[in-house]
Design goal:
The protein has helices at 2-9, 11-32, 41-49, 51-55. By secondary structure, it is mostly helical.
């Protein structure tokens, strides 16, 4: 539990977590609206199959 507590105390790690989540959100929006496309054929197939699988 100390590791988890230390993670949430560190402001830098919280900011990094926020940036990672916002990057994933905006990437997903860009893919849905066709502003961007996934160039890797395997990953594109996974995204078309299941969006949740894409983020795992």
């Amino acid at each position: 539990m100390d590791v988890v507590r230390q993670f949430f105390i560190s402001k830098t790690l919280i900011r990094l977590l926020f940036l990672c989540c916002s990057d994933a959100l905006f990437t997903d929006i860009g893919l849905h609206l066709a502003f961007i496309e996934e160039l890797n054929p395997l990953i594109r197939r996974i995204y078309e199959w299941h969006v949740g699988g894409y983020y795992c």
